[in-house]
Amino acid sequence: MCIFAQSLTKLKQIAYQKMAKFLTNREENYAQWYNDLVLKADLAENSAVRGCMVIKPYGYAIWEKIQAELDRLFKATGHVNAYFPLFIPKSFFSKEAAHVEGFAKECAVVTHYRLKTDESGKGIVVDPSAKLEEELIIRPTSETIIWNSYKNWIQSYRDLPILINQWANVVRWEMRTRLFLRTAEFLWQEGHTAHATREEAIEETEKMINVYASFAENSMALPVIKGYKSENERFAGALDTFAIEALMQDGKALQAGTSHFLGQNFAKAFDVQFTDKSGKLDYVWATSWGVSTRLMGAIIMGHADNNGLVLPPKLAPIQVVIIPIFKNSEQLASISETAIKIKSDLEQKGISVKYDNRDNNTPGWKFADYELKGVPVRLAIGPRDLQNKTVEIARRDNLSKETVPVEKVSEFIPKLLEDIQANIYQKAYNFRKENTFHVDKWEDFVSKLDDQGGFIMAHWDGTAETEEKIKDETKATIRCIPFDSPDEEGKCIYSGKPSRRRVLFARSY
RNA sequence: CGGGGUGUAGCGCAGCCCGGUUAGCGCAUCUGGUUUGGGACCAGAGGGUCGCAGGUUCGAAUCCUGCCACCCCGACCA
Hints:
BirA Bifunctional Protein, domain 2; Rossmann fold; Translation Initiation Factor IF3; 3 domains; 5-stranded mixed sheet; globular; RNA-binding
């Protein structure tokens, strides 16, 4: 139950609107709003290197929370961490045909290993005599370098399964980049597992897409749709790709995580065979799965508003901020007494609290700033509160405020954080529900996409040609074929040919 | 790779079309004072190779040529 019954007065609304001038209005220019928000919430900025971002401490703190929780989930499902090289010999890439095809166009390549001062003595140039025998690719993903190692690790069924995850950076030389959503270098985790049987590998692939989905829903408070990728959208070198797809507030889809069943493709490419229980030689079965710093983009675009970020409490580096309101140092001292007590009470319950007693900004400035940064709960304590033994508690998700007795705070906050977590999930869920459409006519399909976007459930004849044509004409792609999409006779939205189930279409990031 | 844009103080920008004293504004910074319950105010101060290289001109941030970098919009992608 939400106890924040009071609604905003008109005056307060005007005050909020005034504050919004610090951000581009979301309705006016979504892309600009997103960009502004990333910069102004101090999450990241563009760097001197084209397409590469600097992740600033506050943004990185959110990533660390994401990492910590995912790492816990991976370990709970039997995985261990390891680390493989950043560089991949070029020849490794040519071993798996589809894989090269998929990544060749976006690889950064190391060709030399030394610099020297140029003839003028002022600048520095690549030393032509230091050319590498074989060029090194900066990993866009690590299947090849990892399977090359697995070859040495696997001889018998007793060596399986191998369940390894790696936290790393990868480079994909994208044409166009956007902070967090697509950068030339990004941080991610990539799981690479090896199994004795096809069934076990498929089970692993499913297990990990489920881990991602529950992370998205429980921690990020974002509902996702799990499904199969169509052949066109499949990972280069995979037999099957499972994905989770989330709907952003502008009606575009964001692929938030993928899990690939690689079959025996990489084992064959790197000649990784094992002796099974019956003494027969066979190739090893593989999976790989990953999520990236793109999840930061999903959190931003999934929840944020015109006042700034709205962080799910479970991933907020600061869950509660305490702001003192004071006129002089005596007042601050007595407020601090209460504030520090509350802070330590909350910290004992595992809640992260920041007491911002800096006197170089006014309370109003701090209110706006922590709102911009998406801190879920704000406590304000002023002389008035001190007198009444109360604090003012404001929640970021719906901007409502409540005055609560000091002695109730430490039992009130944990419930409030849960409430906020649940509320922003529900909000995102409702948004998705309102923006998911079953469409049967081509003209409706086109106009829906143009008018408001969203998820479109429509019939598809199952061919790559149709998918390609739909993409050409509308920029919409099949995001996934949902696992839970029921059997239903229908006709392809484009070709009119028979279809057995609906698939999920959307324009995407 | 195609289209558009930008480059001027630490940051954000104006000035450029139509060349002319000392290149301006906001934020930030420093000093002093008043403030602090929703991005405070007043007064003063400091801070500039105008992206780089040429050219035109008595004179260039401004006009011309070339180069570089970044951003935005498309084709490609987590």
